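Input record, target 12 of the design panel.
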């Protein structure tokens, strides 16, 4: 059994506490989902549990992690630079279980994950695989290892919808316990039987963890109900306190006035007033004690994201895109043909499709065309943020265009509203979590006044708490959106047109 006792860790760079006194046991049958806002230490926790030595380069930690000789299966959120450069085959050969597996087992494993068995022997660099292909390949290698428990960091990232459904079944039916991070609310609702919620309160100065052995939907509903009740009680007690304080003020002023006006010739009256004032002071102390015992307003780390201005809009008749491509190719290989896409007005279009069919490649092609247009203000959010951003920049340097004092103040105000601390504003973008980087892209699009958004997996790095906020903002966006996504809630709530990219081109999809 995996056991953790009094685990605490903090960021070395700014001594920011991420977790304090965490004690936990992973039991047989557990499917525990780790949730929380961006940058709260979720990935660091999994890396520590797995025993990744690289984590100690940026954190200090104390406590006990007892693995008792267990074989752990860890899926990292991202590949390292060396892993991206390695060929698929050499990457697979780093897993001893792959070398020991016979062709029949490899074929069965590949079939379960909807992979071609030939992919294990592919000479292409790992970095050239689609995000979904990479995740599925690494999940296949993990299942070959047959670990005693699984530690999965965003396993649903970039998976196509059929494979997402496979992953849900895998987690739900897996005989081994699973501790996993996910931002996919549908997956959480369909798989988790426990929730570990990591939060940063009081301007990220107070870490808090909550473990609830219930499903995600029940946890979210009970949390909302608990906070609503606590807030109602706190407001009621404060209203009653204000009434009592007003009465106390009136009594105090009356007794004080009588003391100031009593005649020295009335010693009996003076003694009576002294007794009254003693009673007033006693009442004051009781009110002070009652204030200390009052129900506190609930402390929670809610997602904050500013929205697009209502002035952002496109006329219904505006032609945003009239795109035709006979063949979509990568490295000489044809992925799809006869692609046609026509967008007019503020349509919100979602593109789905199997992993490796070329959705990201298609979006890049369209982005190049739209970003060059002068009659539109287009913005492109890639799946790999480093594709378009110098990650050595700080968030302020990335967002500020002129560097003028007034603009810098405005940028820092916006970053503060999205819960970036002063320390995080001084970090390079490369040091931020995926969710924090995603927030920067959204803020950049807002500040630039974009009216056409090209989004590749826009919700992949946002927490389940941020997800509803993002969907609400994008659903109300007055411009056009063309997005690639496998987030089922996003597709249903934001997109009014759904298209599937197939080898024969784009075709309409009725529902997801």
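The sequence produced for target 12 reads:
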């Amino acid at each position: 059994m995996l056991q953790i006792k009094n685990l605490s860790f903090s960021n070395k760079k700014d001594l920011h506490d991420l977790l304090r006194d965490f004690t936990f046991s992973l039991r047989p049958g557990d499917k525990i989902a780790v949730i929380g806002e961006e940058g709260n230490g979720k990935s660091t926790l999994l890396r520590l549990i797995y025993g990744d030595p690289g984590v100690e380069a940026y954190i200090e930690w104390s406590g006990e992690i007892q693995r008792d000789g267990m074989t752990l299966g860890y899926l990292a959120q991202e590949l390292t630079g060396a892993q991206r450069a390695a060929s698929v085959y050499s990457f697979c050969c780093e897993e001893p279980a792959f070398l020991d597996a016979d062709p029949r087992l490899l074929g069965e494993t590949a079939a379960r994950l909807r992979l071609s068995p030939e992919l294990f022997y592919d000479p292409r660099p790992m970095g050239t695989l689609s995000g979904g292909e990479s995740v599925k390949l690494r999940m296949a290698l993990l299942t070959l290892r047959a670990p005693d428990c699984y530690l999965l960091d965003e396993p649903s990232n970039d998976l196509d919808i059929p494979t997402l459904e496979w992953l849900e079944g895998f987690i739900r039916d897996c005989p081994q316990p699973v501790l996993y991070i996910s931002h996919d609310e549908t997956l959480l609702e369909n798989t988790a039987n426990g929730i570990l919620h990591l939060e940063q309160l009081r301007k990220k100065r107070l870490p808090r963890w909550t473990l609830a052995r219930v499903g995600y939907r029940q946890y979210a509903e009970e949390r909302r109900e608990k906070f609503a009740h606590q807030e109602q009680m706190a407001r009621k007690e404060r209203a009653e306190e204000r009434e009592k304080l007003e009465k106390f003020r009136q009594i105090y002023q009356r007794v004080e006035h009588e003391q100031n006006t009593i005649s020295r010739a009335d010693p009996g009256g003076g003694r009576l007033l002294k007794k009254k004032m003693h009673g007033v002071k006693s009442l004051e102390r009781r009110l002070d004690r009652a204030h200390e015992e009052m129900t506190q307003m609930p402390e929670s780390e809610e997602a904050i994201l500013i929205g697009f201005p209502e002035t952002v809009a496109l006329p219904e008749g505006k032609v945003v895109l009239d795109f035709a491509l006979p063949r979509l190719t990568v490295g000489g290989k044809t992925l799809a043909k006869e692609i046609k896409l026509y967008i007019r007005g503020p349509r919100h279009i979602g593109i789905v499709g199997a992993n490796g069919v070329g959705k990201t490649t298609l979006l890049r092609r369209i982005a190049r065309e739209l970003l060059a247009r002068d009659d539109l203000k287009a913005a492109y959010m890639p799946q790999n943020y480093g594709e378009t951003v110098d990650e050595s920049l700080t968030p302020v340097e990335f967002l500020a265009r002129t560097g003028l004092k007034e603009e810098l103040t405005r940028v820092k105000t916006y970053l503060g509203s999205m819960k970036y601390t002063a320390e995080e504003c001084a970090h390079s973008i490369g040091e931020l979590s995926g969710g924090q980087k995603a927030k920067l892209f959204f803020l950049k699009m807002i500040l630039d006044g974009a009216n056409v958004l090209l989004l590749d997996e826009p919700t992949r790095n946002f927490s389940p708490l941020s997800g509803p906020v993002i969907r609400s903002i994008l659903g109300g966006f007055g411009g056009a959106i063309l997005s690639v996504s496998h987030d089922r809630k996003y597709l249903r709530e934001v997109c009014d047109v759904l298209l599937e990219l197939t080898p024969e081109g784009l075709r309409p999809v009725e529902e997801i």
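The mean pLDDT is 87.
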